[in-house]
Amino acid sequence: MKIFKISDGAIIQHQGLNYRLRHDWDTLINRENLHGYLSALLPHLTVIDDKIFSNLAGNDLLAPIGTQEVWAAGVTYLRSREARMEESAESGAADLYDKVYEAERPELFFKALPHRVAGHGQHVYIRRDSSWSVPEPELTLFINSKGNIQGYTIGNDMSSRSIEGENALYLPQAKIYERSAALGPCLYVSEQPLPSDTAIKMKIRRAGSDVYSDETTVARLKRSLTELTGYLYRECDFPTGSFLMTGTCLVPPNDFTLQERDEVAISIDHIGSLINYVSYKPKNRS
Ligand code: DO4
Ligand code: MG
After folding, report:
1. 120: Cβ below 6 Å to ligand 1?
2. Contact of 246 with 149, CB cutoff 8 Å
3. To test ligand 1's pocket by mutation, which of 107, 139, 173 has the most ligand atoms within 8 angstroms of CB?
C-alpha cells in the first residue's frame, strides 16, 4: 500500500481504493509494524473517490517526511564508484572511493533536514557556484525509531560533481544546500522487502526532449539494506525514525550537467514516479 502525505493528514491507497485519514505524520509512520497497523486501520477509514484523490494529490501533495533527518549512503553501486573516481582524478582523491566501495564500513553522510526537502512536482535547486550538477536517483528507506525498515520512497540526492571533484572534503557543500534533496511521491509500505529485480529509472527532459534516460535494478546494490541501516543506527538515535537514501545507481555521462528548467523524473517499481523541476535558489529568499 502507498501513503501520500497531504497538508491535513494522509491518503492511503490500497487495492484500487483511496482512504482519507487525519493523523499526525510522525505518529502515523513511526511504528513497529506499519503495514499491520495500516491494514487494521483501513476498515475504519472513509473511502474517497478517484476525483478527490487526484485533486488532493495534484494540488496538496507534500514530501512524505515529518521531523525526520535524511541521511545518505555513498558509493554503494559500481557506477557511482566509477563516476566518483573519474571526477576526483585530478584532486588525487580517486583512491578514497575505491577503498570505501570495498571497505566493511559504508560511507554514510548527513543529507538534509525536512525543510530542505522538495516533494513531488516541486523545484530542486542547483548551486550557482557549481559548474557540474547532477540528480542522483536513490531508493530511500523509512526506518522507524527502533532501526527497522518500514517503508520505501524515491529520493533524489542532488549533487555538485565539480565541488566534490575539486576536493572530497567539500562533500557537505556539494550535497547540502536548499532543496538539494527530494522525496516522494509517497511512502510504499509492504509486508515483504522490495524484490531485488525492482527497477530504478531516470529520465531528464529539457525543452520537451529527453536528454538522458537510463535504468538499472536494485540487484546491483553492493550492500544489504539492513547493513546500511545497522551502521546508521549504531551510535545515533532517531526519535521519530529517519530516511536513508541508499546511493545512486545511475550517473549521466561526464559531459552532462543540469540546467535551469530541466525536468527530472525518477521511477522505482512498486513506488511510482518522483518528478522535480530544476532551478536556482531565488536570490531574495532567506
Ligand atoms: O562519495 C560521495 C557521495 C556518493 C553518493 O552520493 C552516491 O554514491 O550516491
Ligand atoms: Mg548519492
Report:
1. no
2. no
3. 107
**Above 90 in pLDDT, residue 58?**
no
Q: What pLDDT, in 10s, does the model give residues 204-251? A: 999 999 999 999 999 999 999 999 999 999 999 999 999 999 999 999
Residues facing 245 on adjacent strands: 72, 140
**CA 38, 39, 44 angle in degrees (round to 5)?**
80
Check pocket membership of 157 for ligand 1, CB cut-off 6 A: yes
Q: Which residue has the cell 474517497?
A: 48
Spacing, Cα 194 to ligand 1 middle (Å): 22
Please report which ligand is nearest the Cα atom of 94. Answer: 1
Cβ of residue 107 lying under 6 Å from some atom of ligand 1: yes
Amino acid at 142: F
Where is average pLDDT lowest: 53-57, 76-80, 200-204, 276-280?
Answer: 53-57
Ligand 1 site, residue 81, Cβ cutoff 6 A: no
Structural domains in the chain? 2-62 (no CATH), 69-279 (3.90.850.10)
Among the bound ligands, name the one nearest to the CA of residue 81.
Answer: 1
Residue type, 86: E
DSSP structure class, residue 106: P
Which residue's C-alpha cell is 584532486?
91
Q: If you write DSSP's letter for every residue of 190-258 in order, what string do you get?
A: -SSPPPTT-EEEEEEEETTEEEEEEEEEGGG-SS-HHHHHHHHTSS---TT-EEEE---S----TT---
Tell me the pTM: 0.97
Longest Cα–Cα distance of the chain, Å, equals 60
Report how far residue 92's alpha carbon sits from residue 232's, in angstroms, rounded to the nearest whole number: 28
Q: Report the share of the chain in percent with pLDDT over 90.
A: 94
75 Cβ closer than 6 Å to some ligand 1 atom: yes
